Amino acid sequence: xxxxxxxxxxxxxxxxxxxxxxxxxxxxxxxxxxxxxxxxxxxxxxxxxxxxxxxxxxxxxxxxxxxxxxxxxxxxxxxxxxxxxxxxxxxxxxxxxxxxxxxxxxxxxxxxxxxxxxxxxxxxxxxxxxxxxxxxxxxxxxx
Length: 143
Description:
The protein is an all-alpha fold.
C-alpha cells in the first residue's frame, strides 16, 4: 500500500520500494519471532540502513516517559475491554510487560546514538519498576 501511494505521487520506484521495506520490517515482532527473522532483519539493515534508524526511533519512543504512559494507557484499555487473549492487562501485568519486552529493546538498537539513548531510557524503566515494587510492597505491608 505504501509503495502504491508513493508511486501515485510520482516517487521513484527505488524510493518507493525502500520505504515499503522499512514499513514492513520496523516492528519488534517482525524481527524477534525467530532466529531466521532476526537474521533477515540484520541483513536488511545492512542493505537499507534507514531501517535501523526508523527501528531505533520507534523503540526509543516505546521506552521513554511517554512510552511508559502509553503502556499503562494501553493496558488499562485492554483491562476495560478484556481483549488480551480473553482477559485484560492490569497494572501488575503492565509492569511485567516492561521485563518481557520494553527492557529488551536496548539490545536491539542498530545505531550508536540509539544504543546510547536506549541505555539511559532502560535505566529509567528499571528505576521506575523498582519504585513500583517498593510502593506496592508498602501498600501490601511487605516492607
